[in-house]
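Why does residue order matter? Because the sequence determines the fold. Keep that principle in mind as you read this record.
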Amino acid sequence: MLAASLALGACDANVIKHGVQFHEGDLQQVQPGMSEEQVRMNLGTPATTAVVNNGQAFYYISSTQSQTSFFLPSEKDRQVVAVYFTQGGTVERVANYGMQDGQVFDYISRTTPTSGQELNYLTYVFKIFGGK
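Structure:
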């Protein structure tokens, strides 16, 4: 009985979270027209920034992994929240990218980006942090 309970206890999966974990409603606080400083106050410091289409972009990266006993962790979810700014430094739009069936997917607009510099950058971010 003791051996069976120890074996079952070793099968519990640990959930490991990395990066920024937003609560429901955090992204709704960021509205078009807000300044970069206001976004930092609401969401914190971005993991990375980039110049995209003549404007600035903030990227907040998070991932959730699961690990069972002595096995290597496996990634269950990965998300990149992108806040795009105009040339004037105000919020243009917010996108929440994730992995769905192996493709970069925007959970807010429910679309998959097609081409351009932004997709290349996001693909790079997902590959380097996801190892895929």
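The CA atoms of residues 5 and 40 lie 48 Å apart.
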